Amino acid sequence: MSADRAVAVMKFGGTSVATPAARALAGRRVTDGIAAGFAVVAVVSAMGRAPDPYATDSLLALVARRATRNADLLASAGETIAAAVFAEELCAGGVPAIAITGGDAGIRTDGCFGDAAVLAVDPAPLRAMLAAGSVPVVAGFQGVGPDGAVTTLGRGGTDLSAIALGHALGAERVDIYTDVTGAMSADPRRIPQAQPIEQASLEEISELAEHGAKVMHHKAADFAARTGTRYAIRDLHSGRGTLVDETPDHHRIIAGVTVTGMLTWVRVIRGDIETPSRRMETELEMFRRIAAAGVSIDQVSINQAGVAFVVAGDRGNAIRELLGDLNLAVRVREGCAKLSVVGSGMRGTPGVVERVVDALSRANVEIIHCTDSNITISVLVPAADAARAERAVHDRFLLSNAREAP
Question: Which of 4, 44, 143, 290 could form an S-S bond across to 82 if both were Cys, CB 3.0 to 4.6 Å?
Fold first, then answer.
């Protein structure tokens, strides 16, 4: 690879390679990158969505859905097929291209079938192909574990493939092509007034993805935030989208809002426990049991009144049974949803929580529980009111692009 050729990694999702017309458009993105002087690496997802024959869900329907070595090999086939097809079409258009698996691209994982973590990427194979003038077309969503077995990276894992490869190659551009115009301030299917986000920080997209926004695979967004890997989320047709880098947009407080559910709120009230040390031992035993049962908790609050947290699903009875013999009063409320409000601009800005509370109050939405961390305010509300809550907070902060005074 010539020293003066910067690398561009281009990820194409399932709808972007599902049809000949879509693949032709993706091919133009590749040739445009080459014409602009970039050494291009393409990363592809499986073609289409179920019931399309080569979609991941269609393949997994052939076997029991378990996280096994055999199932991962089967699931990875969709991306391998897409890589071979797209590479052949690039070659037919005069672009020398070579389809390779994630393992052949140097992606090494922890060997956890079904949801593997990327441990390392060896960029040497891709660098050699680029130096020879070829476009590597990498099958996304896959790598190899310590024993050489194929492992998959979890749903949406092709995003992670692209970010990890971009980081390893020191890519100047990592473009995540999709069928929407970049990241949005809310899910436009729920909030028609949702606005495109022109620029977001790595941290903001990571938080939005972690809290359920369908903007980016959460493991990919977290990997990018940890490694400082800048990228863009772009519409395949227009090329427009969201630039995601280390610089937050200082002209707004909130980047976006998102809602997840169904959830159960748990409030634990201490019983007649005689000493602080004994209370601490009892609460520690509570957390041990919850962890041993494989239950993940969120929005944890610990104070003199007791402990409160949230678990996924309608788990009230299960939590009561788990903690029933401890000297604790366990109160549960099922049918909840979490509204998350994310924005780097809330740091150092007074009055943000007040405006969230005011918006929900005006919308007549009950606040069951509220926590904040980093750049996110998370509010637990009744699931039946979640759409109204999301709309109220979105309208309060994001209908104007100007940063408001508190």
Answer: 44
